[in-house]
Design a protein that fits this description.
By secondary structure, the chain is of the alpha+beta class. The chain has 7 helices and 10 strands. The protein folds into 2 domains: 95 residues, Alpha-Beta Plaits (2-Layer Sandwich), CATH 3.30.70; 137 residues, Crispr-associated protein, domain 2 (Alpha-Beta Plaits), CATH 3.30.70. The radius of gyration is 19 Å and the shape is globular.
Length: 245
């Protein structure tokens, strides 16, 4: 499969200026501290729709690309099709290069990954298994009345341990082993289509992962990079970026 890694940047024109409040979220630590930012899901959905315009040459195409927001109107996209060269009128001409890493078993790579990490769990015997966020599942028994600082520390500790365990399991079938791992951030994103009170609103968790891995099966690993990791890929999760360590 031919793959392309593209860097695209929103153009500064009247169309994108009019959409700035929707597509340009607050950046930096203040944004990361807003764990339950009600606008974040809407912003991610808007980004996804904008990126779709770069692949609108075939109306029957299903989403076959992964993407990642880098902030400031910049995005990285991994796709089997090159994006529109004119930026669809909303982006600057994309910077596109073939993605064909020359890997060998034993290669050590640094990585970053924004992932919605889930697992299946049965809540009661004989019930249908359901998908649960690995961090929220790890925090399930934590008293809700704990002070915010203590709960934040517990949340990040859970993201560190549950996130590493989840990625290690991914590696068993994806051709790699974890060497080093850190959870740089964890946040919860409300789904944008929800109408009604915030309590009970559908949401998903996002872990910002960094570290190093060792390639065990290059072909399997590259194939998995193309498919992505975890869920919520439409919301900018799942694209693992790699570099030589």
């Amino acid at each position: 499969m031919t793959l392309y890694l593209s860097r695209v940047t929103l153009a500064r024109n009247p169309a994108t200026t009019a959409l700035k409040a929707l597509i340009d979220p607050m950046e930096g630590p203040a944004a990361r501290d807003r764990l339950h930012d009600p606008d974040r899901g809407r912003i991610m959905d808007a980004h996804h729709r904008l990126i779709w315009t770069l692949f609108a040459d075939d109306p029957d195409r299903t989403r076959d690309f992964l993407w990642r927001a880098e902030g400031g109107g910049r995005f990285l996209i991994l796709s089997p099709h090159s994006p529109a060269t004119d930026g669809a009128g909303l982006f600057l001409p994309p910077e596109v290069k073939p993605f064909a890493p020359d890997l060998r078993a034993g290669d050590r790579l640094g990585f970053v990954l924004r992932a919605n990490a889930t697992r299946t769990r049965k809540t009661v015997p004989d019930a249908r298994a359901k998908r649960v966020d690995v961090v929220m599942d790890a925090l399930h028994g934590l008293p809700s009345g704990r002070q915010s600082d203590a709960r934040r520390e517990a949340r990040m500790a859970a993201a560190e341990t549950a996130g590493r365990d989840w990625l290690a399991r991914q590696g068993e079938s994806a051709g790699f082993q974890i060497a080093d791992f850190a959870a740089a951030d964890y946040s919860v994103v409300p789904l944008p289509a929800h109408i009604g009170p915030r309590k009970g609103q559908p949401q998903f968790g996002v872990i910002e992962m960094t570290g190093r891995l060792t390639v065990t099966d290059p072909g399997t690993f590259v194939g998995r990079l193309a498919r992505g990791f975890g869920r919520a890929k439409a919301f900018g999760c799942g694209l693992m970026l790699i570099r030589r360590a």
